[in-house]
Automatic annotation (TrEMBL):
<keyword id="KW-0812">Transmembrane</keyword>
<feature type="transmembrane region" description="Helical">
    <location>
        <begin position="7"/>
        <end position="25"/>
    </location>
</feature>
<dbReference type="InterPro" id="IPR048110">
    <property type="entry name" value="SA1362/YqhP-like"/>
</dbReference>
<feature type="region of interest" description="Disordered">
    <location>
        <begin position="97"/>
        <end position="133"/>
    </location>
</feature>
<feature type="transmembrane region" description="Helical">
    <location>
        <begin position="31"/>
        <end position="53"/>
    </location>
</feature>
<protein>
    <recommendedName>
        <fullName>YqhP</fullName>
    </recommendedName>
</protein>
<keyword id="KW-0472">Membrane</keyword>
<keyword id="KW-1133">Transmembrane helix</keyword>
<feature type="compositionally biased region" description="Basic and acidic residues">
    <location>
        <begin position="118"/>
        <end position="133"/>
    </location>
</feature>
Length: 133
């Protein structure tokens, strides 16, 4: 089906280009005014469609307000989870002793080894003596 449509489309485009060139040479003033009127009409139609339908859709042209709320909530949670520790201001020694909690109240923090790292066994006893070559 596409094979017979391609020559027809090229023929129609060629005739359109020929007609535009012919109108530009023979009747320039009316051609230019009709082009300006068509562009103005297209801008008015696009503006009306934009203000009636597309403006209230949200950011990015897609998605609704509920999805934007969910996205903003996820961003907020992510920032809270991965926020950087704030730098502390140095205080005097008296203030430090009063603020410190007892060592018994602290829970020991469990260290977990990184899952992507592994120990490679090797000959650790052999040291290279770089001075004797």
């Amino acid at each position: 089906m596409r094979n017979w449509m391609t020559p027809i489309m090229y023929t129609l485009m060629g005739l359109a280009v020929f007609y535009v060139g012919f109108q530009l040479i023979t009747n320039t003033s009316s051609f230019l005014t009709s082009i300006v009127i068509m562009i103005g009409f297209a801008v008015l139609v696009y503006g009306a469609i934009y203000f009636l339908f597309l403006r209230n859709r949200g950011f990015g042209g897609g998605g609704n307000k509920n999805e934007m709320k969910k996205y903003k909530q996820a961003v907020k949670q992510s920032k809270q989870k991965y926020k950087q520790p704030t730098p502390t201001i140095k205080k005097s020694n008296i203030a430090k002793t009063a603020v410190k909690s007892s060592p018994l109240g602290r829970k020991p923090r469990k260290r977990s080894s990184a899952s992507h790292l592994r120990v490679i066994e090797g000959h650790k006893n052999k040291d290279k003596n770089r001075a004797s070559f």
